[in-house]
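Note to self: keep these together.
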Amino acid sequence: MRARTTVLLLVGLFIGPVAARGQDAPRYEIAGGYASMRDQDSSYNFPGGWIVSVGATATRWLGLVGEAGGSRKTLPLAGDPPKLKVYTFMGGPRITTRRADRVALFGQVLFGAARASATVLDVADTVTDFAYQPGGGIVVTLRRTVGIRLEGDYRIIRAEGSNSKESRFVAAAVFGFGK
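Structure:
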């Protein structure tokens, strides 16, 4: 229910006042940066993560994005501490609206796979499950082809009949190209 409310809020916030995207905005983008994730079920923070993404503008306000990311955590236990890793490979639509000359707001919903692994005493257990991730944020353009993205997401991983939930914050450098 919370995910549905988040998606409806993002759609209402970003589709309603959609403004035409500037004609000088790049058609394609690549981005990379830092991600901090919190697993809501285990209450663990994964402070050392990363993301890379590619995007293409389909219309003035609609784009497509593909993203890969990873987060890892070593639990503070004596001896050989357990190591947790979560990797995602996702893609989906992104709606963007320009609010000022250098500021753009966006909302997106990504779908794909989440791969989680836990390693204890050199024995690993890995699972891959379906995931979806509504989110949104702001892109501040520093120069025509360089910007900074601040983003918040709420990932839901569907595994064995139940949902696992993860919130995430991203800070990334964005590089645009093409017309």
